[in-house]
Amino acid sequence: MDTATRWPLVGREAELRAVKAALTARPQRSLVITGAAGVGRSRLAREALVAAAQQGHPTAWAVATGAAALVPLGALAHLLPAVDDGATGLALLQRATAAIAGDGTGPTPVLGVDDAHLLDQMSVTLLHQLAASSAVTLVLTVRTDAEQPDPSAPLWKDGLADRVQLEPCAAPNSSAWSTWCSTGTSTPGPVSGSGCSAAGTRCSSGSSWRTACAAVG
Ligand SMILES: Nc1ncnc2c1ncn2[C@@H]1O[C@H](COP(=O)(O)OP(=O)(O)O)[C@@H](O)[C@H]1O
Ligand SMILES: [Mg+2]
Asked: What is the DSSP string of 56-104?
């Protein structure tokens, strides 16, 4: 199991339903997962890619950072073929489109890009073109409390992507979770109810999540 999804997903049933509905729609719909830092955007995006892979879609994952944004297509470099030093911006875009979209046969590729608000302009252009052409389904995460403008806004405003807004969470309150947190056994799976409507800020790592849970009676 991938380390990002090793701990069971808690709550987020409605959001997960929205994610799966977009990924099973025909044609498949891109997703933009928004929310403040720590609320669980990356985690839900990883769950989306797991779901897409289970449906037989090829998946790829990229993480945008301020440092990667100093190079055009920097955050996507590991997905792209080597290019000549002298390649123009247009040639770069064309090569990148071909590499990520593939030859159009088989299930649509699903590309997850975490923290897309940190992408450079060429990457943003590429993602818009991929989404508009339906060649690739995007799963983007965007921070709503970031200084940078939301590069995904044209996608969801123009109906090219569904937007899933994550709100901060409360601590879980089910006895099943309390048992799991105190014993570490018998994973209870997703819990419903308002007391477990979300996760994220209370579980920034496995150990802190268990500490928070164990305190719940
Ligand atoms: N619903 C959830 N269930 C269990 N763990 C979660 C959930 N949401 C987030 N987490 C965990 O909380 C931490 C922060 O979530 P993350 O997705 O990285 O937040 P963000 O990307 O919004 O900053 C991570 O360790 C993540 O695995
Ligand atoms: Mg994140």
From this structure: T--EEEEE--TTGGGSTTGGGGGGS----TT--HHHHHHHHHHHHHTTS
Query: Considering only CA atoms, which of 70, 75, 54 is closest in space to residue 5?
Result: 54
Any atom of ligand 1 within 6 Å of the Cβ of 117: no
pLDDT more than 70, % of the chain: 75
Residue range 155-180, pLDDT digits in tens? 988 889 999 999 886 555 555 555 55
Rounded to the nearest angstrom, the distance between the alpha carbon of 63 and the centre of ligand 2 is 9
Which residue in this structure is represented by tokens 């959001």? 15
3-state class of 39 per DSSP?
A: coil
Stretch(es) of the chain classified as CATH 3.40.50.300: 3-165
Q: Is the CB of 199 under 6 A from ligand 1?
A: yes
Q: Which atom of ligand 1 is nearest to the CA of 8?
A: 4
Q: Ligand 1 pocket check: which of 17, 42, 210 to mutate, most ligand atoms within 8 Å of Cβ?
A: 42
Given CATH 1.10.287.130, say whether it is the number of domain 3-165: no
Closest atom of ligand 1 to 115 CA is 21
Q: Stretch 101-110: mean pLDDT, rounded? A: 92
Q: Which pair of structure tokens corresponds to residue 23? A: 């990924």
